[in-house]
Design brief:
237 residues, 7-stranded mixed β-sheet, alpha/beta, two-stranded antiparallel sheet, 9 strands
Length: 237
């Protein structure tokens, strides 16, 4: 049974060791993400994550590191995960590992990866797979790792696009209101142009929640655009 959903972004700037003297600038975002994951774990017996990457896949009990981002911070998606840290582990899974160890250390979190350019049919198929995993009597919490537009300011990684603010507000409002219809209607081509890499993960989640047939209430923990990128932390319970 799907019990709750938490939404977090995946920026490496969550990790204090990567931010140096600027770490305090990310305290609000970091605390919100950790708080949302703690809340999710408290409402769930099992945790499952969904995120995006260049290719689809399922990662279970893996070890990663942020060494490629500038610091050898090792993370695990399960308490018993072992082996050499993978420096090329997809960022969504690395983020899950970092958050898990600090907010839900007793949990093991499998990570479902959806291709960043997945179309509606692929998102629907991934949602059915997740729904099947959440179909038993246990309370399943879904952790959604997804980033917004990278084009919100002139200094943003994708430079400035005057369409980005409206799209980002639409996404943030939909996450706050549990508006699955709006999330499912996001245009893949426009999102790609604006650097909205989390589009597929949000659309998978919307389909999972619609299929669950339960009523959820939304909460926004954080919504802002540090460094010109849209980051949202929220929960549906």
């Amino acid at each position: 049974m799907l019990s709750a959903v938490a939404f977090v972004p995946s920026p490496p700037l969550l990790v204090p060791e990567l931010m140096g003297a600027a770490s305090d600038e990310m305290t609000e975002l970091r605390d919100a993400a950790l708080g949302a994951v703690r809340d999710l774990a408290e409402r769930s017996d099992v945790l499952l994550a969904v995120g995006v990457d260049t290719h689809a896949g399922l990662l279970s009990s893996v070890v990663g590191t942020y060494v490629g981002w500038g610091a050898d911070v090792v993370v695990r998606t399960a308490p018993d995960a072992s082996g050499s840290p993978d420096p090329e582990l997809p960022l969504a899974a690395t983020t899950v590992g970092w958050l898990r160890e600090r907010a839900a250390p007793a949990s093991a979190i499998d990570v479902v990866l959806v291709a960043v350019d997945a179309d509606a049919a692929v998102c629907a198929s991934a949602a059915r797979d997740i729904g099947a995993r959440a179909g038993g009597p246990e309370r399943v919490g879904l952790l959604v790792v997804a980033d917004g537009a990278t084009t919100l300011t002139a200094a943003a990684p994708g430079a400035f696009d005057d369409r980005a603010e409206g799209v980002q507000q639409r996404i943030d409002d939909a996450l706050a209101a549990v508006d699955t219809a709006t999330l499912r209607s996001l245009d893949p081509a426009l999102c790609a142009e604006l650097g909205v890499s989390g589009r597929a993960a949000w659309q998978v989640t919307a389909a999972v929640v619609d299929a669950a047939g339960r009523s959820f209430t939304g909460r926004t923990w954080y919504r802002a655009a540090p460094y010109g990128v849209g980051y949202t932390v929220g929960s549906w319970t």
